[in-house]
UniProtKB/TrEMBL annotation:
Transmembrane segments: 25-46, 66-90, 167-184, 190-210, 249-268, 280-302, 309-327, 333-358, 379-396, 402-423
Protein name: MFS transporter
Membrane topology of this protein: Multi-pass membrane protein
GO molecular function, a single term: transmembrane transporter activity
PANTHER family documented for this protein: C-METHYLTRANSFERASE, MAJOR FACILITATOR SUPERFAMILY TRANSPORTER
Organism: Micromonospora costi
Localisation: Cell membrane
The entry's keywords: Membrane, Transmembrane, Transmembrane helix
GO cellular component: plasma membrane
Domain Major facilitator superfamily (MFS) profile: 31-425
């Protein structure tokens, strides 16, 4: 029966005892570092494109706020359902590294697709969908590899280190894009070609240095080589939603996704308010990434110490404060510094910590599928949020739209705090075993 599979303690990675194993638990594994390096390189590539995309679409192609909201939502959410497919395939065949590699490869190829799309908005949307398909396919297997390479009580630290390395790439990406634009003029094609070359390097690092260790499969409650274990079925995978803790966290992730309106809108609002020169526009993303870089590991450690739920909720408080600043009286450098710092704090407190909260309540055998369900719920909600925010901007103006977004954050926090409290207790019991 499926429920017996979920409740069986052997499905979770063993907690190291004292001695040498306990000392090793204080550090992140080599697999986490290798995956962090892949994410660092890939994020340099991705953020090069992300940093110039709002300018390219809104100012270069004259897209309306609603049209940009649709494209921005597609960039994150349109291929969200494929996260579940990628997670299920990775669990069924126990080939998480291979599925992740396919996702990274798709995203790399998509960078060249932007060259062929030209000024056609439908073609650009299709290429962006392919790029997000790659991200959707790779995210859950990558995060599952992290959880299966880390003891439960150190998941906050592991995800903090991984997200720190990831944010180094996000920090460098806009700088590389700006350097390319300064050297060749406002040639977006040069940015896309450079982005492809860097993304291809990330795939090489994955192939050479990331391992899907036999011990990862042994942690799944079976033999090291998986012999004699039945393959994960579709019924078993979707049976996760019949279990209270996974169902609660998937629902909460979807609600939290409704609270975020998208980086492009935040940066466009700052550019509009402060009249930031277009050449320096990528530095807005750099500011967010710098805050994320500095805060991801400390907040991961804090989440391991005080609990992951308070850190996640605190991150969304920072998001609501960011939205209020964008509609408030503060201006100039104080606004830029404070808004970008809070925005980076939001990502550092939520991105990996939410997965770390979910990890212990998901059976190792279905870990990738469970993480994919969480990420899919959040991404689909983000797609809806981006479209609605673009519509609100067009109908009511940017100031009213961002105030509504801040109010939405407050409502979502009130709903998700009691929804996730039982998940926190379940996770704490699993970690203490």
């Amino acid at each position: 029966m499926y429920l017996s599979t979920v409740s069986r303690p052997a499905t979770d990675p063993p907690v190291p005892g004292p001695g040498r194993a306990g000392r090793r638990a204080a550090l992140v594994s080599g697999n986490v570092v290798a995956l962090g390096t892949v994410s660092l390189v890939t994020d340099v590539s991705a953020e090069m494109v992300t940093a110039v995309l709002p300018l390219y679409l809104v100012l270069g192609l004259n897209l309306s706020p609603l049209a940009f909201g649709v494209v921005d939502g597609v960039y994150t959410g349109a291929t969200a359902l494929l996260r579940i497919v990628g997670g299920f395939v990775a669990d069924r065949f126990r080939r998480r590294k291979l599925v992740a590699g396919l996702g990274y490869g798709l995203s790399a190829v998509a960078k060249l697709g932007l060259l062929l799309a030209g000024r056609s908005v439908p073609a650009i949307g299709a290429v962006i969908a392919v790029d997000r398909l790659g991200k959707g396919v790779r995210s859950a297997p990558r995060d599952a590899l992290i959880t299966l390479s880390t003891p439960p009580q150190s998941l906050g630290r592991a995800f903090g280190v991984h997200r720190t390395m990831d944010s180094v790439g996000a920090f460098l990406g806009p700088l590389v894009a700006m350097a390319v634009l300064l050297v060749v003029g406002r040639s977006y094609d040069a940015v896309f070609v450079t982005s492809f070359c860097i993304a291809a390097l990330g795939v090489v690092v994955l192939v050479l240095f990331v391992r899907e260790r036999p011990t990862d499969r042994a942690d799944e409650g079976g033999s090291a080589d998986g012999a004699g274990e039945p393959a994960v079925s579709v019924r078993e995978a979707f049976g996760l939603l019949r279990v209270r803790a996974p169902r609660r966290i998937v629902l909460a992730a979807a609600l939290l996704g409704l609270a975020a309106v998208g980086d492009g809108f935040v940066y466009l609002l700052l550019q509009r308010r402060e009249n930031v020169e277009l050449t320096w526009f990528p530095l807005l993303a750099v500011g967010t990434s710098l805050a994320y870089l500095l805060l991801a590991t400390p907040l991961g450690l804090l989440a391991d110490r005080i609990g992951r739920l308070p850190v996640v909720l605190g991150g969304y408080v920072a998001l609501g404060a960011t939205y209020l600043l964008l509609a408030g009286p503060l201006g100039g450098w104080p606004l830029l510094v404070l808004a970008l710092t809070l925005y980076g704090l939001f990502y550092a407190a939520t991105d990996g910590v939410l997965v770390a909260l979910a990890g212990p309540v998901l059976p190792a055998r279905l870990r990738t599928t469970g993480i994919a369900l969480v990420q899919t719920g959040q991404a689909l909600a983000y797609l809806v949020s981006s479209v609605l925010f673009g519509l609100a901007w067009q109908a009511w103006g940017p100031d009213t739209a961002i105030r509504v977004a801040a109010a939405t954050v407050a409502v979502v926090l009130v709903v998700t705090a009691p929804l996730l409290a039982p998940v926190r207790r379940t996770a704490s019991r699993k970690v203490s075993r």
